[in-house]
Fold this sequence. Notes:
By secondary structure, the chain is α+β, with helices and mostly antiparallel strands. The chain has 3 domains: 7-133, Rossmann fold (3-Layer(aba) Sandwich); 144-160 and 234-365, ATP-grasp fold, B domain (D-amino Acid Aminotransferase, Chain A, domain 1, 2-Layer Sandwich); 164-231, 2-Layer Sandwich (Dna Ligase, domain 1). It has 12 helices and 16 strands. It has helices at 20-33, 64-69, 121-128, 138-145, 147-156, 169-174, 176-187, 210-223, 265-270, 284-300, 336-344, 348-366, and strands at 7-14, 39-46, 52-55, 72-77, 84-91, 100-104, 107-111, 164-168, 191-195, 205-207, 226-231, 235-244, 249-257, 275-277, 305-314, 320-326. The strands form 3 sheets. It has a 7-stranded mixed β-sheet. It has a 5-stranded antiparallel β-sheet with strand order 14-13-12-15-16. Strands 8-11-9-10 form a 4-stranded antiparallel β-sheet.
Amino acid sequence: MEQSAKLRVAVLFGGRSTEHEVSMTSAIGVLKHINREKYDVLPVRISKEGRWIMLNDPQSLKTADDLETREGKMLVLGGPKIKGFFKMSTAAGDEKGVGLERVPVDVVFPILHGTFGEDGTLQGALAMADLPCVGGGVMASAVGMDKVMMKQIFFQNDLSGTEYIWFLRKDWIKHRGPIVKAICDEIQFPCFIKPANTGSSVGVNKAHDEKELLQFIDLACEYDRKVLVEKAVNARELECSVLGNDEPETSVVGEIIPCKEFYDYEAKYLLERSEIVIPADIPVAMAEQLQKLAISAYKALDCAGMARVDFLMDKTSKQIYVNEINTIPGFTPISMYPKLWEATGVSYSELIDRLIELAIERHEDLGRSRFLHE
């Protein structure tokens, strides 16, 4: 690794998922708050077609539109001895690069939400390249992304969730009738229909009757081969941020009060009328219970670096359900993860520092393992 007074941090954003635009907004937050005196920042856009592009003039990147439109040279990921990327000598749109230049990197900070960024695929590629990566590893990322697998792991660790049924898209095509009957008998209405592997509530809907159920399952099947149907609970939506590796810490607990019936994509990013309450107006004992549950969920998936754990609290019975975990939570101006840490006493810039330190710490720990038989 070439030595430098600053750590070189490659910030990855964009990607090939339905959350491409959300990633752009999150990345602006990171680029705005990262300490340029400590880090040499390398902004890398992953286009919707999958090209990795190192953007020119990183200091001038101020908006999500800048990140989407700025030109640059195309990158390819190097191997373990490269410790970084290769930069093509021609423009990003030209696949006939006439030369390669090594671009060393100390740590990678992925701000990619959804498929091909949050689901373990990127984490696996970076592990193969022997690069420190902010956030969870392959397994935690993959399980955290797949809502069905996540629920099964939670159940095995005595972390209760709402009742659910899941099935494959091909089963829906072949056995629609029995699936609808099972949902009506066991889950009943209202219920949530979710593609198993999307985030930001993309493709998520709430069905109140059989007609809506059929419509929303068909829609969910457009986004994923696996569909989850969950019993709806009249609940408050509570969230807790987690930070750390083997000894994680939790933030204060916050609450989301959606401007719609539930916190869907529109309520999160478009309407700007949902209310965020930090800290949540709940008893101290309940907040402590949620923090303990957040740590348990984090450790159950062997998460690293960061995650946000979301809960549902039944408004009548006060029962707590672990709803899901997000291994690359949003970093937009309205995102709960940085806001919860700010309320806990950790600024956005300090949070980025901690995440980079944790990535390097975990990479060094993983490096202590023997990979080849000798």
